[in-house]
Write the structure tokens for this entry.
Amino acid sequence: MPENGVPPSPEGSPLSEKKLVSWKEIAAHLGREVRTVQRWEKTEALPVHRHEHQKKSTVYAYASELDEWIRKRQPVDDPEADAAFAREQELSGTDSPIDSGDPPDVLPVPVDPVRIDPTPDPVKPPPLLRVWRRAVVSVSALAILSAASFAIYHWTQPENSADEKVRIVVLPFNYTSGDAKPDYITVGLADVIRTKLGQLDPPHLGVIAATSSKIVANQAIPEIGRLLNVKYVLEGNVQRAGDKVIIDVQLIQVSDQTHLWSESFPRELSDVLQVESDVSAAIARQILVTLPALSVPPPASTGPATVHAATPEIANSRHAYLQGKFAWGSRGDLRSSIMFFQQAIHDDPKFADAYAGLAAATAILGQVPNDGMPPSDAKPRAKEAAQQALQINPKLAEAHAVLGNVAMSYDWDLATAEKNLRRAIELAPNEPTPHEWYCHLLIVEGHNSEALAEARRALDLDPVNPLFHDVVAETYYFGRSYDAAIDEAQQVVKLHPGDLYALFWLGSAYTQKKMYAQAVETFQRARQFTSDAPVMLMAYGYAQGLAGNAGEARAALQKLQQLAGTRFVPSLYPAAIHVALGETDEAFRLLDLAYQEKVDRLVYLNVDPMADPIRSDPRFAQLMAKIGFH
């Protein structure tokens, strides 16, 4: 081992073997649902071992065997096969290990891709890279949390939590019928109710975001109140009978678990738009009557602006839209969500929400660290979809937020970005994502204390979502508070060992503190989790270069070059490694290519510590001037 203590490579100095001791740990490691990995054991020879005892068994697996298997097999996700497998197991009563998880959410079959314009990147990335897709927030991974883990999250409850607000959480609705579970409908209904309540009286009513709501859904009411700092819990059941649906809703006061009110809504399921509009509006009216702290009347129209008379096409469009939201929010699958949103638009070209969903998913797919599409393809498409959404509904916050994202990360127009992001926050102050993106803008502008406050606001709205804890760590990193970044990221990694954003900012803070051994070990883990995602290869090579291990840095460069033959790899990545190696001419050549590619992270270079080795070079100032920093 070199004197600096940095291991030479994952191949030359492997990490100690990791043993996964339950289906949930195996599923979390692979970034999949429990039923998916259970099916893979039966149909794809997934290397799972068993301890047999009495009439039951517990499972275990080795991380290295799983990683090697998935590299060779590259198994295809098949939600329909997962559902069929789950039903077969339930009917037969076979293979019921002690730790078997709940049946997964079932994603309906995507629409026919022939009807949709294909994305320009036909190469499917390795399956584990889906963990990066918004998905670090994927509910399948989050389900591994235990009640004890929740308590640890309180260490970072936002300091500026708005105690004067009445805070409420809308739990995921339970589907109580015996047929196949239409999660995308129940999830969509809860989302619309959250949106409606979030518009009522933002200064006095805080509504917890969907991810945190789902994480705590199985906890007792007092525990939910403690974890999320809420006074009220709204929960409900959905029962389907033929073409009808009955929605039962109740509002619970956390302090004494009193049921303040309950109501039942029988509706025709065929008109999903109207069902969601009617139920959410009725609940909003009842909330205003029940909670005395709310004195401001609701907006003239708090219902979805795109509700109109249902036709078969419109009904199909709404179902496709809900499937798109479900694919993104519950599985972190941006590509599937894009297909569903496009189908929704095809069936109803006046559906503003579908355009906004398409815009957001496309924008995120085309930026670091997803790199699923070149920015020059993704960002203009996202901007066009957002503009179409606003032509139909000028008050759609999600579309304004996407325009802010594109203005900052692609057009490098910070003034326009701020205008759109502030408008999104004004329209939907209880939505965490506009706060997150505004935090990034403030980072780029060098306003780190304000950025940290905005990150805390996002976290206040989604308290147990690791994504927003990651954003806090990121903000500390760019503010050069490396110890705080390390502490924040370490706490997330303790609860979510596979949270790649947390690993990235943890390793990056180690690198800047010249703790190269810890940085390389962290990035080695991330490389294993992602089967060498380009962004992790970059970070690993950069750390090795600064540590003086030129051979390992060049090996990372070579792997990036190989990957670039099959998928989009931003020129910014090899440029960073050349910076670490002191090869400034090649670094600036690649940075110029990254400028032509319009890579979104270029706008961060003005404040990114990774650029410090070249900051005094006149070419750096010239590059920043081209981007818009004078």
User: Anything to note?
Assistant: The chain has a mean pLDDT of 80. The CA atoms of residues 247 and 265 lie 5 Å apart.
